[in-house]
Every structure is written in structure tokens, then in C-alpha cells.
Amino acid sequence: MPVKVSVVIPVYNPGNYIEDCVASLRRQSLPPDEFEAIFVDDGSTDDTPARLDALAAEVENITVIHQEASGWSGKPRNVGIETSQGEFVMFVDNDDYLGDEALERMYDYAVANGADVVVGKMAGKGRGVPVELFRRNHPRATVDNAPLIDSLTPHKMFRRAFLDRIGLRFPEGRRRLEDHVFVTEAYLRADNVSVLSDYVCYYHLKRDDASNAGFQRFDPVGYFANLREALDVVEKYTEPGPTRDR
Can you give the residue ranges of the TarS/TarP linker domain (predicted)? Predict the structure, then answer.
């Protein structure tokens, strides 16, 4: 059976927070032979590598890749893309988890609408998530007719052939907003973006120790340099006017 979806999970010292992520993958309504989960361990120093290896030995559709610590999520996600065999790639953080029908619903929605990107409804567990974007389904969403700009995290489903065709990968290295650069370009260059709002696909969790990447110490120099890069993407792929001004 061809692999429909590859789920890529960058991993670094998640401790027990990874358990909900793993459990949600094993509960998916999409049959196990139609998706794969690729855990890319970015040099974890806890017991995660051994736990993941044991999991991969037990579960056929789970793969584990170990690499030296890169310090951020961009490189592990890129390694996952290159390893993936699925028609679509879905990015999940190691301390978040999926709704039980997320992969099946998002894949079917992508196929039905010819989407290069599918944005599934999110729910926050101690973290803010977009609200206005998910008030209704948007089979053909653009930055003009839907508030896509409210959701620039990478926790979405992307057509692998689309990523390859435009050569889109995450900026690597310790860089804030690297996901914003990636997602902004995907939105602006996709033939179609679909927003699925009638089912919670993704649960975005704030850890008790607040050690998610988004809660790390603020570096203004790096932040604004990367924000400038995201704005450069907008300028490159839009014409002057209301769309660019958003």
C-alpha cells in the first residue's frame, strides 16, 4: 500500500511529554500501512533515544533517525522530509499530539480539494492558537480571503511533490521563526491551501517546565533578522498592494 502521509517529529529531550504524541499516532484512524512516523532525534541526552529505538522495533510504521544536536528544529524536519515516502508530509512537535482522525481527515481533504497545504484546526493546551481562521472550512484559502497569516507554525500537511518542485526546506541552525519563513512561502506558492475547521486535528501543548522552543529566552537580534527574512518572502512572491500590506 502506498504511503499517504509521513509524520515528521523532531525530538530533543522530551521526557514523558512524548508519550501523548506516540499514543495519538498509534490511535490514528488511517490504517498503519498508509502512514509512517519518522522521529528525528536531535542529539537527545535523556533516555529518549533508547525508548524510541524500542518503539521502532515494536511498531512497523515507525522509523527513528539519530543525529548530532543541531540546536533547533529546522534540520531535523529537513532530514525527515528527505527520508519520507509519503504523498504528504505532516509536521508534529514531540510534546504535541494529534486528534485520532487527523491524518485521515486531512489527507482526504487534501485530495478532495487538490491542496498542496492543509491547515487542520488546532486546540491550545496552555498555548494560544488561531481562532478566526478556524470558524469555518476554507476549501480554497488564500491570504486574501482567509486569515492564514494567523497560523505560521509548521504543524500542517504539505504535499511532498510541491515541496520538492519549489525546493522548499526549513532554514537550518539556531534560528527563531524558521518555521514562519517556510510556511509563508508555502502559502504564497501553493496552487491551493485548504483549511479544515470541523475537526480538531492538532493539540498544541505548553509544557509545565515551559521548555518548548517557543518559550525559550528571547534573542532580539536573531528574532528581527529572521522576521526580516519572512517579510522578504512576502515581498518576493506578492505584488505591491493589499495582499502584501497584510
Answer: 220-246
Of the residues 108, 179, 209, 232, which is catalytic? 179
We find that the CATH architecture of domain 5-245 is Alpha-Beta Complex (3.90)
232 given a catalytic annotation: no
**Ranges of each domain in the chain:** 5-245
How many alpha carbons lie under 13 Å from residue 209 in its C-beta half-sphere? Answer: 9
Q: Decide: 187 and 151 in contact? Cβ < 8 Å.
A: no
What single string gives the DSSP state of each residue in 111-122?
Answer: HHHT-SEEEEEE
pLDDT digits (tens, 9 = 90+) for 5-61: 999 999 999 999 999 999 999 999 999 999 999 999 999 999 999 999 999 999 999
**What is the reported pLDDT for 36?**
99
Dist. CA 79–CA 200, nearest whole Å: 27
Q: Say if pTM beats, i.e. exceeds, 0.85.
A: yes
Alpha-carbon gap, residue 63 to 131, rounded angstroms? 34
Contacts of 64 (CB under 8 A, 6+ apart): 38, 39, 41, 49, 52, 53, 55, 56
